[in-house]
Specification:
The complex is a heterodimer of chains A (about 110) and B (about 120).
Chain A: E1 4-7, E2 10-13, E3 19-25, E4 31-37, E5 43-51, E6 54-57, E7 64-66, E8 76-78, E9 87-94, E10 103-104, E11 108-112
Parallel strand pairs in A: 2-11
Antiparallel strand pairs in A: 1-3, 3-8, 4-5, 4-9, 5-6, 7-8, 9-10, 9-11
Chain B: E1 5-7, E2 10-14, E3 19-24, E4 29-37, E5 43-50, E6 55-58, E7 61-66, E8 71-76, E9 85-93, E10 103-105, E11 109-114
Parallel strand pairs in B: 2-11
Antiparallel strand pairs in B: 1-3, 3-8, 4-5, 4-9, 6-7, 7-8, 9-10, 9-11
Classes of the chains: A mainly beta (about 110), B mainly beta (about 120).
């Protein structure tokens, strides 16, 4: 199993550009989520999904969209990038919505100029 | 807002010593989890303790949970240089008895173990 994979590893955007961060898992996990990690802030939940076709907002959803058309994939879209979105983004998955460990991807380091 | 507060923010010890990190949280939880993050990498799950458990062990790791004080501690015994990493506690908040798996992370403790 590859586990949780994320692409790209690094990305530089200009303010106003849009892009999609990809996340995929091959463990047949129901639950997937996106976090961002900023220096000194720990991880903050952006959006999460409890199954295909079901998504909801986390703590810091503004400026991001998600969709979950398959169990395996959970892309994160930045609609109009802003410098405040410069961060490291992690995707995670777990077997079911609660009470289980989450498996994290390697992260995408995004810089918005 | 951050649910968990970790203490200390940084810890520097010698190989062979024990390392203790503490986590406090604010609201009722279903479980509390500890994760490790090596520099530039993703998080790796270490241990999960449920709200009805008081202590859990996994290898050199010992986790305690005191729900009355809303606090947890992670003890790493006989530390090694390879334990150098950031350690995060994460709480799965109890929303009316239901766990939605929405983890709230603390800011982390940076552990440095000197050979």
């Amino acid at each position: 199993n590859a586990g949780v994979t994320q692409t790209p590893k690094f990305q530089v955007l200009k303010t106003g550009q849009s892009m999609t961060l990809q996340c995929a898992q091959d463990m047949n996990h129901e639950y997937m989520s996106w976090y961002r990690q900023d220096p000194g802030m720990g991880l903050r939940l952006i959006h999460y999904s409890v199954g295909a076709g079901i998504t909801d907002q986390g703590e810091v959803p503004n400026g991001y969209n998600v969709s979950r058309s398959t169990t395996e994939d959970f892309p994160l879209r930045l609609l109009s990038a802003a410098p405040s979105q410069t961060s490291v983004y992690f995707c995670a998955s777990s077997y079911s919505r609660g009470g289980n460990e989450q498996f994290f991807g390697p992260g995408t380091r995004l810089t918005v100029l | 807002s951050q649910q968990g507060e970790e203490d200390p923010q940084a810890l520097s010890i010698q190989e062979g010593e024990n390392a203790t990190m503490n986590c406090s949280y604010k609201t009722s939880i279903n479980n509390l989890q500890w994760y490790r993050q090596n520099s530039g990498r993703g998080l790796v799950h270490l241990i999960l303790i449920r709200s009805n458990e008081r202590e859990k062990h996994s290898g050199r790791l010992r986790v305690t949970l005191d729900t009355s004080k809303k606090s947890s501690s992670l003890l790493i015994t006989a530390s090694r240089a390879a334990d150098t990493a950031s350690y995060f506690c994460a709480t799965d908040v109890n929303a009316g008895g239901t766990s939605y798996g929405k983890l709230t992370f603390g800011q982390g403790t940076i552990l440095t173990v000197h050979p």
